[in-house]
């Protein structure tokens, strides 16, 4: 019997991150990169510190953003691993550990920061 | 009357028993408007060099035996025309990623073993024997697999697949597309037997959706689509197996 691949776990995270990147990315770029700077539809205060800090203190926003960042990390880790494979660098256990380990570390950090922000309100 | 022109065909030559390494040999071939690359090779064999070895049979894109690389692209040589390359020369090589048996003829053993591993035949469920009667299918049920049933085993997709090139343990496009062809057939009940092939690292997970297989397929089989549908199936199987009764995981 051929051993079952554990790829479904990482492929799901990769797919989730990719889909969210495609959905949320352009909107974020539009708002942060274009609309806010030229003041279209947003006041000059729209993205100041207090405003943003208040937003992230809300559990939905704080944790929502943390999960988004986590999925982006896993998406990137998976892509990097496979691109390295295409370039002839074999995806050894160690390389997988480095890629997905960094993603897991980054995700844990994001959740931790969100937790602190939310708890402090 | 189509006019005769001349084109240079550069062929890879290799006889593993006598040659140390493959080399190229060029031939000047007179051709007319409607002549295919295969006919060019046949001209060489009949008039210039009887030792040139290549496979062919139907001459009409049906048998799948004439695949080769023309200017680094995997094509059916019977479906590729010399006029499209003239006045430049063309280079004809055996399909990439396969061992060479001789000249343009490759060794398909690896593919045949993979094809066998996917149980490429209908496995009816036990207790579902219509006797002398035919098994009926609706037009929709036929559409579910008809596209994937068009494969002629020409192996262009394996020559185009960079993943198979990097690691030939990968089950590969045509075998996985044919696996899906039988899974998608309403008369078949053999899914469970094929799941192991799908779920393996060398199964659908060997694919990174480069998509070249579907680009080069002369029969529009779209193996990339079949494989990626089965990534979803494999993911469902991975997570949902814990809900299944023991012994069927
Ligand atoms: S899937 Fe297409 S390219 Fe691949 S072997 Fe079948 S017919 Fe040829
Ligand atoms: S000779 Fe049969 S497919 Fe080309």
Secondary-structure topology with pairs:
The complex is a heterodimer of chains A (121) and B (249).
Chain A: H1 7-38, H2 49-57, H3 59-86, H4 93-120
Helix pairs in contact in A: 1-3, 3-4
Chain B: E1 5-13, E2 23-31, H1 37-48, E3 67-70, E4 73-76, E5 90-93, E6 100-102, E7 105-106, H2 109-117, H3 139-146, H4 156-160, H5 162-166, H6 173-183, H7 191-199, H8 212-216, H9 223-240
Parallel strand pairs in B: 1-5
Antiparallel strand pairs in B: 1-2, 3-4, 3-5, 6-7
Helix pairs in contact in B: 2-6, 6-9
The structure holds iron/sulfur cluster and FE2/S2 (inorganic) cluster (FES).
FE2/S2 (inorganic) cluster binds at residues 56-59, 61-66, 76, 78 of chain B.
Straight-line N-to-C gap of chain A: 53 Å
The averaged pLDDT of chain A comes out at 91
* Class by SSE composition of chain B: alpha+beta
Strand content of chain B: 5-15%
Helix content of chain B: 25-40%
Looking at CATH, which topology of chain A would you report? 3 helical TM bundles of succinate and fumarate reductases
Main beta sheet of chain B: strand number and arrangement? 5 strands, mixed
Bound molecules: iron/sulfur cluster, FE2/S2 (inorganic) cluster
Number of domains of chain B: 2
């Amino acid at each position: 019997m051929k051993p079952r691949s554990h790829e479904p776990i990482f492929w799901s995270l990769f797919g989730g991150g990719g889909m969210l990147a495609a959905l949320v990315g352009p909107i974020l770029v539009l708002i942060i990169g274009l609309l806010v700077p030229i003041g279209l539809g947003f006041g000059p205060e729209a993205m100041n510190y207090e405003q943003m800090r208040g937003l992230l203190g809300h559990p939905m926003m704080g944790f929502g953003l943390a999960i988004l960042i986590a999925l982006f990390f896993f998406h990137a880790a998976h892509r990097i691993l496979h691109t390295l494979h295409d370039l002839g660098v074999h995806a050894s256990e160690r390389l997988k550990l480095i890629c997905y380990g960094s993603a897991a570390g980054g995700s844990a950090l994001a959740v931790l920061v969100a937790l602190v922000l939310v708890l402090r309100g | 009357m189509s006019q005769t022109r001349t084109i240079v065909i550069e062929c890879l030559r290799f006889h593993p028993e006598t040659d140390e390494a493959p080399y190229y040999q060029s031939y000047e071939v007179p051709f007319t408007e409607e002549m295919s690359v295969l006919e060019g090779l046949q001209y060489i064999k009949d008039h210039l060099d009887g030792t040139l070895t290549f496979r062919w049979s139907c001459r009409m894109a049906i048998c799948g035996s004439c695949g080769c690389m023309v200017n680094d692209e995997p094509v059916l040589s019977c479906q590729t025309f010399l006029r499209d390359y003239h006045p430049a020369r063309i280079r004809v090589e055996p399909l990439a990623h396969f061992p060479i048996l001789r000249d343009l003829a490759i060794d398909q053993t690896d593919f045949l073993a993979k094809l066998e591993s996917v149980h490429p035949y209908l496995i009816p469920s036990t207790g579902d024997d219509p006797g002398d009667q035919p098994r009926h299918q609706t037009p929709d049920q036929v559409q579910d697999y008809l596209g994937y049933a068009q494969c002629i085993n020409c192996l262009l997709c394996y020559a185009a697949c960079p993943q198979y090139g990097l690691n030939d343990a990968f089950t590969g496009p045509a075998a996985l597309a044919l696996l899906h062809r039988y899974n998608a057939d309403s008369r078949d009940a053999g899914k469970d037997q094929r799941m192991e092939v799908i779920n393996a690292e060398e199964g659908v997970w060997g694919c990174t959706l480069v998509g070249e297989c579907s680009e080069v397929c002369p029969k529009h089989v779209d193996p990339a689509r079949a494989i990626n549908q089965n990534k979803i199936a494999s993911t469902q199987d991975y997570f949902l197996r814990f809900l299944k009764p023991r012994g069927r995981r």
